[in-house]
UniProtKB/TrEMBL annotation:
It is a multi-pass membrane protein. The lineage of its organism: Bacteria, Pseudomonadati, Bacteroidota, Flavobacteriia, Flavobacteriales. This is BT_3928 family protein. Keywords: Membrane, Transmembrane, Transmembrane helix. It holds the Pfam family MauE. It comes from the Bacteria. It comes from Aequorivita flava. InterPro entries: DUF6624 (IPR046732), Methylamine_util_MauE (IPR009908).
Length: 571
């Protein structure tokens, strides 16, 4: 019994210390896991959610100290009761989680060792048995050292835990066990290997054979049975390979930019998973280092799960010179334990990752053959114009007054604004925006991506699109910018087609369509040399042939039929 107690003492003590230290390395991550347990569908302890981080810190430090106390033989009775109460609670919790499939990862060993719910429960049962052995044979637990030395060692362990906690909360985890650690490639992390195992399904086939119901179970193949099939039930009995990185996206305005940004060589990403509880002080150093990054030839973007209205308000408040894109909140919390946090990516590989407290430590050498320094003040002005360019247009899409009111209040508009003549108010803004853009056109040309960055290069184009009377004057400037790579060729092509349609002439690339409520219906505006339009579209950068593009405009049931100007004029 003495030997059994000694072995149990070492195993339990070391496991508690290792488990506690792993979670102590990342208390923020453990607090996220506690919030999962506090959720309404699990333990329904929502009142504890605001205190999740404090509870996490207390639990992990207590876990380490209990493990140390057991090995030292410090306060034997109190230590054993603490161990027993903890393991009974966690055994119940892991059983509840596994049986009802509530939380798929207990977080017992943080991100270092992933356990399924039933594996977690089994681990706790084993620990429970070992702790019962310690209880029964507690007379064999002899203390080490004198009482004073044991107290000093416990105090040192406590201070050490506090020091580690303080460091990782103000910086980042000392060891990163997550798939987004420095050196990891996000694209490779999302890839499923060719020979990766797929999911295994079990099929239950119910047949009526000679008036009798029979059920045959297979893994997919149709059973050879004489009879009529009644029903089939499918159950996945083994999951297939899941890549370590999933749910990672970079989206904005309904478009996916993930592939584009993961292919960039010099990209700085600001992660702010939730603007509702972000550290506002962090955006002061972030403003400084992102401006420096832009000047040194880097592209800069933000990632957040918050709404576009909230991110644009943040950008305006702190005069940030980059845009935010959407990404899943859980994914962003996994990427970096700082809100906001900083990443540097090179073709999808994470080169640097920092807490906002360490923003000044980021290394941003001037990129060789970098594009010219951006005009940050102009970029900021254009980004503000971009917001005004859409201010009332979004409201004009509202299908009811109530929906318009909801959107208006969300945007911080007064009742007079969201209930007024939206088209007239937007027209005023469009005219004011055009005054600034036109002045720049005349003095310096088109403000393309070499001047204001790729994300702001199309602001002037949108302003011009919304002032069609100015298109004839500045279309040559837009075409020149496209030829020089300052804006996409597709943008110049769309504007040229729009101009030709306004002039009552055939378009070139087939980008413009018309819809009427009468017999004319919907159609693609006549195209010059319609037979070769797809070749021109391809040369201009359009991916879809005209037949597919027409369906995008007018719906899947639409069939493209070329029309001539004579047909249009006769209608």
């Amino acid at each position: 019994m003495k030997i059994l107690v000694g072995i149990s003492r070492v195993i339990v003590g070391i496991l508690f210390i290792i488990s506690g230290l792993i979670k102590l390395n990342d208390p923020v991550g453990f607090s996220f896991k506690l919030k999962d347990y506090f959720a309404p569908e699990v333990l329904d302890l929502g009142f504890l959610v605001p205190y999740a981080l404090l509870i996490a810190i207390f639990l992990v430090i207590f876990e380490v100290l209990v493990g140390v106390a057991l090995l030292l033989g410090y306060l034997k009775k109190a230590t054993l009761w603490a161990l027993m109460l903890m393991i009974v609670f966690f055994t119940f919790l892991t059983f509840y989680s596994a049986y009802f499939n509530k939380v798929t990862d207990c977080g017992c060993f943080g991100d270092a060792i992933k356990l399924t719910p039933w594996e977690s429960f089994t681990k706790d049962v084993i620990l429970l048995v070992l702790i019962v052995i310690l209880f029964v044979g507690r007379k064999y637990i002899q203390p080490f050292f004198t009482r004073e030395i044991r107290s000093i060692l416990i105090f040192i362990a406590f201070i050490g835990c506090l020091g580690v906690t303080y460091y990782v909360l103000l910086h980042l985890p000392i060891i990163d066990f997550r798939p987004y650690k420095i050196g990891a490639n996000i694209k490779e992390g999302m890839t499923v290997p060719e020979n990766a195992p797929g999911p295994i399904y079990e099929y239950k086939w119910k047949f009526n054979s000679n008036g009798e119901e029979i059920v045959i179970t297979t893994n997919g193949e149709y059973p050879q049975v004489d009879g009529e099939l009644i029903s089939t039930e499918t159950e996945m009995i083994q999951e297939g390979y899941t890549p370590p990185i999933h749910d990672f996206t970079m989206e904005r305005d309904g478009e996916d930019y993930t592939e584009q940004f993961l292919a960039e060589e010099n990209l700085v990403v600001i992660v702010a998973y939730s603007l509702g509880n972000t550290e506002k002080d962090g955006y002061i150093p972030i403003k400084e280092i992102t401006d420096r990054a832009l000047k040194n030839g880097y592209n800069v973007i933000g990632l957040s799960a918050s709404s576009q209205e909230m991110t644009e308000a943040l950008v305006a408040d702190y005069k940030l010179n980059f845009k935010f894109y959407f990404c899943d909140e859980t994914t962003l919390k996994t990427i970096v334990r700082s809100n906001p946090g900083i990443l540097e990516l090179d073709n999808g590989t994470i080169k640097q990752k920092l807490h906002w407290n360490d923003a000044q430590k980021i290394q941003l050498p001037v990129v060789e053959n970098a594009k010219p320094k951006l005009d940050l003040s102009l970029k900021q002005r254009l980004d503000s114009i971009s917001v005004l360019d859409q201010k009332y247009r979004n409201l004009m899409q509202a299908r009811s007054l109530e929906e318009r009111k909801t959107l208006g209040e969300k945007m911080g508009l007064s009742e007079a604004e969201y209930s007024g003549d939206l088209a007239k108010m937007q027209s005023v803004l469009d005219s004011v925006n055009m005054i600034f853009v036109e002045k720049y056109f005349i003095e310096k040309g088109y403000p393309g991506k070499s001047v204001v960055g790729e994300e702001s290069s199309l602001v002037a184009w949108h302003v011009l699109q919304h002032n069609p009377d100015k298109i004839p004057l500045y279309l040559p400037l837009v075409k020149k910018a496209a030829a020089e790579g300052e804006i996409p060729k597709t943008s110049a092509a769309m504007m040229e087609d729009r101009y030709l349609m306004m002039e009552g002439k055939p378009q070139i690339y087939g980008t413009q369509g018309m819809s009427y409520d009468d017999a004319r219906g919907s159609f693609i505006w006549p195209i010059a040399d319609a037979e070769t339009v797809n070749e021109r579209r391809k040369n201009a950068g359009f991916e879809e042939p005209i037949e597919v593009y027409a369906k995008i405009l007018f719906g899947e049931d639409f069939i493209y039929e070329p029309r001539t100007m004579e047909q249009i004029n006769q209608q």
